[in-house]
Amino acid sequence: MAASTTTSVAAPTNLHESLFRLDWNAITVGSTPLRRAGLVGLDELKITEALDGAGVHVESYADLDSLAGAISTGTSPPGVVLVPCGQISGSIPTAARTTTAAALELVQQWFADDRYSDSRLVFVTQGAVQASDDDEVTDLANSALWGLLRSAQSEMPDRVGIVDIDDDPTSYNALATILAIAEPQLAVRAAVPHTPRLARVAVPDNLSAVEFPADRTVLITGATGSLGKALAKHLVTEHGVQHLVLTSRRGLAAEGAEQFRDSLAAEGVSVSVEACDAADRDALAALITGLDRPLAAVVHTAGVLDDGTMASLTPERIDTVLKPKVDAVVNLHELTKDMDLSAFVLFSSAAGVLGGAGQGNYAAANTFLDTFAQSLRKQGRPVISLAWGVWASEGSMADTGRSNRSGIAPLSTAQGLSLFDTALGLGEGVVIPMRLDMNSLRANAASGSAPLLLRGLVKVPARRAAKARAASGGGLAQKLASLSEDQRLSTVLGIVREHVATVLGHADASAISADHAFVDSGFDSLTAVELRNRLATATGLRLPATLVFDHADPAALAAHLLGELGNVAPTSEAAATPSTKDTGGTTLMSLYLEAFQTGKWAEIFELLRAAAALRPSFTGSDDLDKLQQMPKPVLLSRGEADKKIYCFSSCLAVAGIHQYARFAASFRGQRNVSALAVPGFNRGESLPTDIAAVVQAQAEAVRRDADGAPIVLLGSSAGGWFAHAAAGYLESVGERPAGVVLVDTYTPKSNLINQFGLSLMDGMVEREGVFVTMDDARLSAMGWYLTLFGKWGPDEIDTRTLLVRATEPLSQGSMRALGEDWRSFWEYPHDVVDVPGNHFSMLEEYSSQTASAISDWIDGL
Fold first, then answer.
1. What is the helix (H) or strand (E) element at residue 299, kind and residue range?
2. What is d(CA 164, CA 371) in angstroms, rounded to the nearest whole number?
3. Is the Cα dihedral 473, 479, 482, 488 positive or negative?
4. Do 193 and 178 touch, CB atoms closer than 8 A?
5. More confident: 722 or 589
């Protein structure tokens, strides 16, 4: 395999002002780990296991719809929701499109749902990033994700993150603290997190140029546009290339292609212009094998733009942009890998590195090119990917106005070609040729609006930076508080007009009137996103992508922002006090905690029951249908097995669908597992008049969802009461379930539940604020249901029943007091299996063992 003809160079002597590389810098990890995390999809990277070991509560959902269903029933959104991205089988181009389209769907769902506004969706890859020269890329397909998600971060800052982790066990052990870092992009190597920043490339004085043998052919793809023509002319005049094959999809039919060929031919150059799409492997192979002279070099400049914000992209638009980049470069590599090339040059874009807003598909395609080049260079191929900034020439695929505002200045054709020559001699796998407007960049850095990766290139005086920060967020709110009402509106309107003027390219705010309609001002989806981000930075508010289109004009927008600034929550420690601490007010929660500490259980449950009696009620499924409160099972796992599992939530205040999220993950790809909440635990929901009302409602919800398929009803703790009672109801209407599973369920009328009630409530308080917040609705609902079921005893059913028992007590005190009798029991015929863990942990860190035992039992039905 050929190596580059670039000779060894002396030690670097100076930094180039317009050539950059991506450096991954180690950062310090804090000591406070995550307390809770969600996980969506298959955990092929075994992240859950690592977080378990660090004491992180992880709940796993089949998809975001499942998480949304859990949130709709009262589960608090996790602060971090992880998406493990394992390797996908198949060809690299197909896998890249598949994984990028899947990520796009998740991001679109995430951005569109306000319930996730205070959470981050963090994708985790392994081997998709080269964070050092020693790194080896093992997952090329998922490298495209990095470009897509960088663009998502540009459009919606702080909402999406991405982490690449190596397979070092110490890295997994450190995940709990690393994932608590707010950095949007991280590469974890040997337990050390690294974050990317651009750095200038050192250029030696005795730089050697790459040679293009004059007696061989240079192939340039996408060569009939203005950039391709300029490059071809440059290779002839500056590098002595005498044999060119120029390809594009239209070939000689492209405008000016024939004239350009003839002009080079007049200078004695052998030029062939061919209609050949490099993404078409057969066509490309025929072209290469039919050459009169062997190839000396390949320059791949072909590309297609189909820009659009995340909300507007589709899998088809991803395919349109990835094909001429990803498919084509893989074809070019595979068809030339045994040839003695002196150079294999890929024209990429800085959009893939910086994350261009509105260019998610283009960024994905170009990030793949960069990573592919690094991977091939490790194999000894003379590959370099040039991630270009903005070219001023026609057809440069860039919005120069938006780039200028971010601190990136356009390159002239002469500047670009000069950088081309210098970059080729550096011996780097990826170089970013880009001209910066340092004044704009410093201003953006001071205000906090500079692209993340560019911030290390400028130094802002601490006083100036502090002043800029004080003008945003809480600082602005405090400033407004000292002004009159008219002055406050005038101040915010001035900020809005200033940023509208900047985004629309006006010299100053005087060009923007307060009542000029946005729809007539020239806003499109990209400028709307840019304005939203600028105003978010200026005000410290979290703002929607539709901000501009939701308000008629600057005056209306300013009034909205002023209202939001008036609602900015304090960021003091007192404001962050967990709800489990009594702040002095007399609420159900404060009284509950006092009862917890003093042992006044009878008194607090009487109070909770009395509060619940004042709430609206229902008598069955017909009432709930009318109220649109009918419980809907949330699908947590998909599979092909014939028996579906339906999990019934407990009636404890901290219970809900989330309690089955980890358990259901063990059935992914095997069996459908759904969960349904107990009615009445959310504000505004009704409570049942009696046990029969809730049993009928839940059983009918399962019956509708199952649609005739065989089912197994499962309940953990008090959820077992609902599962068992629902089985009895279904038997009475002639639809007997295949089985009932009771997970550490006690008969409520027994005294045993009272014997370790303190331990049970202790476990509740420990989990409060992690998965749910125990507000008045939840506490009163718990009191109502525990009162309803206080003297309830199960009726005998014909459905086969399994009792799953914990092998560890909730507390040593209950074990000492009761001996072996502390274990759960059931008074009617049933099978028994013991699994590791206690009443709570058997569905948390020991959920896989519990699921395995239950799965074996179901298979034997």
1. strand 295-300
2. 13
3. negative
4. yes
5. 722
Query: Whose structure tokens read 């006092």?
Result: 594
Q: How far is residue 839's CA from residue 3's CA, in Å, rounded to a whole number?
A: 63
Q: Measured between alpha carbons, how far is 148 from 361 in angstroms, rounded to an integer?
A: 6
Residue 654, H or E segment? none
| DSSP 8-state class, residue 425 | T
Residue-wise pLDDT tens digits, 649-678: 999 888 889 889 889 989 988 999 999 999
- Nearest Cα to Cα of residue 246 among 271, 281, 225, 264: 271
Six-digit token string for 371: 């990573």
Of the ranges 241-255, 709-723, 757-771, which one carries the lowest mean pLDDT score?
A: 757-771
Residue 506 corresponds to which amino acid? H
Q: Are 539 and 472 in contact (CB under 8 A)?
A: yes
pTM for the model: 0.83
pLDDT at 774 over 50: yes
What are the Cα distances from residue 685, in Å, to 83, 677, 698? 32, 12, 15
Q: To the nearest whole number, what is the mean pLDDT of the chain?
A: 87
Strands 36-40 and 80-84: parallel
**Beta carbons within 8 Å of 422's beta carbon, 6+ residues apart:** 16, 19, 203, 207
Instruction: Give burial (CB, 10 Å; 0-12/13-18/19+) of 355.
Output: buried
From residue 420, how far is each of 125, 244, 415 by CA, in Å? 32, 18, 9
Residue 838: CB atoms within 10 A of its CB come to 17
Query: For residue 539, how far is the Cα from the chain centroid?
Result: 25
* Contact between residue 819 and residue 604 where contact means Cβ atoms under 8 Å apart: no
Angle, CA of 570, 572 and 576, to the nearest 5°:
90
Determine the Cα–Cα distance for residues 744 and 824; give it in Å rounded to an integer: 6
- Give the model confidence (pLDDT) of 823-857 as tens digits: 888 889 999 999 999 888 899 889 999 999 999 99
The model's confidence at residue 811, banded by pLDDT at 50, 70 and 90, is: low
- pLDDT exceeds 90 at position 478: no
Q: Which two tokens stand for residue 503?
A: 């985004």
Residue 223 dihedral angles phi and psi, to the nearest 5°: -95, 0
Q: Please identify which residue in the block is written with the tokens 């406070």.
A: 32
Rounded Cα distance between 344 and 337, Å, is: 10
The C-alpha atoms of residue 491 and residue 113 are separated, in whole angstroms, by 31
